[in-house]
Amino acid sequence: MAIFKTVGADAKRADKITRFLIRSVLAAAGLLFFCLNSFAQKNESAAALESAARLLSAQIAEKPQNLPGLFDKNFFHRISLEKLSDILSGIYKSNGRVTAVRLERADSAFSAHFIFETENNFELPAALSLDPDTGKISGVFFTTAYKKNLLLQEFKEKLVRLEGKTGFILRRFGVPSPTGGAEGELAGVNENGYFAVGSAFKLYVLGALLEKGVRWKTIVHLREEQKSLPGGRPSATTALADKLPAGDVWRAPKADGPAGGLAGWPDASPLTAHTLSVMMISESDNTAADLLIETIGRKTLEGYLQKFGHSNPALMRPFLKTSEMFRLKSDTESVLKYLNLPPGDKYGFLSELAAAPLKAEAVKKSSFGIDKIEWMASPADLCRLMEYIYKKDDKQALDILAMSPPPVGLRLTGGGVNTGLDMETGNFFYAGYKGGSEPGVLNMTWLLKSKSNAWYCLSASWNNEKKNLDENKFFELVQSVLRAGWE
């Protein structure tokens, strides 16, 4: 009898297991059907949106036709047929016939953003939505068309072909992005990637002076132990000396001669915050930068990074002084110890490191480790910083930025300090600049005011930890963007 009970119990358990497996298979099949159905619906929605966008683009003509058949009837409660026809006809007269439609992004199953490319080489951003019931256009919004810049596209293609890691952004301040990217972004390549930026970090020091409200007349006394190694304008400018005014090419001091910049000034020399800022930006003086960091306070400056728009301030902590970077790059044992310390312990280590001798000949002129012992920022970060400085509207700060002559010039049609710089087709009212150049590191960052009083930022970086960089190639490439014209 017990045997039959056991067999019966086993049969019941087997039956339960079978029913469970059947339910599981049916559920999986249902889920698969749901996923496939959702995928199909998503594709159908995208296809419907793109079809509507193409039909709409065809109505950008001298005399639009059949608009009632394209738009939902409720659309005309908000705008008359005649007014809509006039708008589409006006777009045609200003920009030409639409030759291509490009989906930028879909916001939902019934709304999306497109770019209409025209025969006159314009790109017209358009957003449209469909009525879920009728499938017809229930809303449309056009923003200002902009010139499709073939030179800009060519620059981007050449930039990505450079060996190593490259990034670039061009932004116009105060306007929405025509492509749905960061506000005002007109073009970008790896714009959110992080790069070693060399002396372009000094822009953060300038920004911190403004944020802390340090008076330009504040006096700082130079002490011997605060001196760093001489800085200077990138040596690559020598290759473009014929494009710069006399005296604008910096040359490193001779080994047996006096130190350059503030490093050669007498102990206890009184210096204003303004003088230090001028030397830091226009001459890239390292001692000036270190003195200003001490004046502001390292931790205070680090606390400002997020306000300046840096997307990952931890990459900048500790915010190195130039003398600290040189000392770290002078001693392999010190740099390895520093890199292996917890972030909070690095500050004390740097304080102890200040006692180590600082000699130019000891600094290893190598690109190795540029992602570890450097100042890291993305092109987008640097343009957000430039936007902060621009919005502060401090005349002294803007004049100081305009004193830094880049290795490629500009013709300024009005205002600005560096009016002696020349470029055939620049024609900017204002050009502020700071760059960085070290083994394996190049950065160029501009704040520009156009002929139409629009403000722009352009920032480009190139890093290569394994090979030396062709500085002239990079400079000439960026110069092509400055020539391009963006309006």
Topology:
Layout: H1 2-58, H2 67-70, H3 81-95, E1 98-108, E2 111-118, E3 122-130, E4 137-142, E5 146-147, H4 150-161, E6 165-172, E7 185-189, E8 195-196, H5 202-212, E9 219-221, E10 270-272, H6 273-282, H7 286-296, H8 298-304, H9 322-328, H10 332-339, H11 346-353, E11 376-377, H12 379-392, H13 395-401, E12 430-438, E13 441-449, E14 455-463, H14 471-484
Antiparallel strand pairs: 1-2, 2-3, 3-4, 3-5, 6-7, 6-14, 8-11, 9-10, 12-13, 13-14
Helix pairs in contact: 4-14, 5-7, 5-12, 6-7, 6-13
List keywords for this structure.
single chain, 487 residues, alpha+beta, Nuclear Transport Factor 2, Chain: A, Beta-lactamase, five-stranded antiparallel sheet, 14 helices, elongated, disordered N terminus
Largest sheet: 5 strands, antiparallel
Count of separate DSSP helical elements: 14
**Helix-strand sequence:** HHHEEEEEHEEEHEEHHHHHHEHHEEEH
Radius of gyration: 30 Å
Task: State the share of residues found in helices, binned by percent.
Answer: 25-40%
User: Structural class, judged by helices and strands?
Assistant: alpha+beta
- Low-confidence segments, ≥5 residues, pLDDT <50? 1-7, 31-40, 234-258, 408-425
Looking at the structure, the CATH topology of the largest domain is: Beta-lactamase
Beta strands, count: 14
Report the β-strand fraction as a percent range. Answer: 15-25%
CATH architecture of the largest domain: 3-Layer(aba) Sandwich
**Coarse morphology:** elongated
Q: Mind telling me the CATH class of the largest domain? A: Alpha Beta
Distance between the termini: 95 Å
Return the average pLDDT rounded to an integer: 83
* Count of domains: 2
The CATH homologous superfamily name of the largest domain equals DD-peptidase/beta-lactamase superfamily
